Amino acid sequence: MAYSKVKMVVDKEFRIAEIDERIYGSFIEHLGRAVYDGIYSPGHETADEHGFRGDVKDLIRELNVPIIRYPGGNFVSSFNWEDSVGPLNERPRRLELAWKSIEENKVGLNEFTKWTRDVGSDVMMAVNLGTRGIADACNILEYCNHKGNTKYSDLRISHGYKEPHNIKTWCLGNEMDGPWQLGHKTMEEYGRLAEETARAMKLIDPTIELVSCGSSSLTMPTFPDWEAVTLQHTYDYVDYVSMHQYYGNQKGDTEDFLACSDDMDEFIRTVIATCDYVKAKKRSKKEIKISFDEWNVWYHSNAADNDITENHPWQVAPPMLEDIYTFEDALLVGLMLITMLKHADRVKMACLAQLVNVIAPIMTEAGGGAAWKQTIFYPFMHASKYGRGTALLPVISTPKFDTATHTNVTAVEAVPVYNEEKGEVTIFAVNRSIKEDAEMTIDMRSFEGYQVLEHTVLECDDLQAVNGPFNQKVAPKETSQSVIDGGIVTSKLNKASWNVIRLGK
Questions:
Q1: Which positions are annotated as active-site residues?
Q2: Is the separation of the CB atoms in 429 and 413 below 8 Å?
Q3: What CATH code is carried by the domain that includes residue 331?
Q4: Does 267 lie in the same domain as 250?
């Protein structure tokens, strides 16, 4: 059988940057069954004394997620944080306007913070700059981070949390460029509000990191003017600008769908250029980093979601955004991870949106049944487990092809990660050709004495295959498709496959 030929050079001196582990973050919003019947299910057989599911916690720990964004998302733009703290029997039921649901506030700020630490993560907290503003942001920061002897820190202590939560990372609102957002702002309106909010918050706690709202997608009509205008206000006070992007295969065109990671690359490059334009304009020495704090495939559940919000509103934890992911979705998730790792010098945080039940790698059966792994669980798990260390610049020669809306699409996308401490190199590679296997020759001669430790592949004959609670049709397997001789690795990359090639001394 003929293979397409791919060549790659991996050299320990070709360094992009150290990878910030928070690039493997995720996101939980008070939306659908993410919280209730997701992470929290008091009647479940694995639930702890606080009502949080143990089996779900185990799966999250397997993903090794270092930071989790909370509580939204669109939810945050009408969130009254005070409703979510204090005695449970005194917390109000609220109309949740973003997703037209009822929020019972059984899980709130303190419970979530405690749960997050329990699964080995930190909190990325978002403040409401939609229906609220500067004073509210200062109050919640004081509640979370101030030691004591003030109104809101003493309120936290009275709620049973003597020590401050010390939340380091804070988002200044969510998707404020979007007309769907409660309290949607113009560029100037958001820029001024975010600047003053950031300035006030850093007076309370100068150690925090702040994320300024960027564009909600590459296709927003205000992109990239939004970044250029808002950052001129917030630049001196914030550390990151956010990016959000989802992709779908509504047309059923797999080749074009798998090329969407090229759009993500263009999006990142344009945001970096815009940040650096503002830097030059301000004569600043400071470099703004990127928090890609919403990214995933999302389109399977759109019709069902619209039906719930339009015809069956005001439910408690309705089943919304419950995309059941296909094998081809897992391939694109792998490609998006590779894209972000290639920009590890600027993309320092990212949040797979979301974590449980809502466009998520982890699903639970409704009503307290089993928890299970979606197809997208696996590339994310592999990257989180083995993608820590230094991202190396991949020098690749690969065939290219055109799709319906993309040109010069590389057949193979790959990125190496060098973990110097462990003496290991991991190459993540996707063959996104759905027609042809590839033979990849990798020059590894700068890593003398290294051997192939394992080659793991995620592949399936059916691009539309899905997993279920008792059927893992799409799961990784070990292969012997990589060999090394004289510092040259030869790897077979099957068509439409995600590959993890690990080498070490």
A1: 175, 294
A2: yes
A3: 3.20.20.80
A4: yes
